[in-house]
Amino acid sequence: MRPIALLVHLIRDRRGVSAVEFALIAPLMILMYFGAAELTQAYMAQKRVTHVASVIADLTSQETTLNQGMVDDIFAAGQHILQPFPAAPLSQRLTSIERRADGTTTVLWTRTSGGGTFGATGSIPLPADVLENGETIIVAEVLYTYTSPIGDLLPNGVQFDAIYYLRPRLTNRVTCC
Known about the structure:
Elements: H1 3-12, H2 17-61, E1 65-66, H3 68-81, E2 90-99, E3 105-113, E4 136-146, E5 158-166, E6 175-176
Parallel strand pairs: 1-6
Antiparallel strand pairs: 2-3, 2-4, 4-5
Helix pairs in contact: 2-3
């Protein structure tokens, strides 16, 4: 067969077109699949962080007095809520804030768990008009650094945070050890 006839024959041959198209599209489809799975995992971690903040605030607000064992149990509950994600990058802080008669706020007590870096306890942001004079509020803050199981997609991780505010339910002030 002459070279020109062979070239014309190869150009007209359509038997390998599907394989070539698949070879071109498959990497993109695989990347989209893993990206969607990773986005779903990150979203689930973010929702769990919010849930941890609400639960530890809720558990704290239901007490009148806390001791260190109770605080440790509340923080352990937060770690269990976060499962199946690892609890090591989880940091939690509980703070009781009071608004005095002169309108200033003061921190009555604060407890932390984990090694996260929270802002100064005196700089906890409170929404406007959330407290009247003489009232207290429980503030639960949670930080979590989500790292991807596929480390190349998010090599440094993403930090999620949540803040939750609740008033004490059974008393005007929750006291802590």
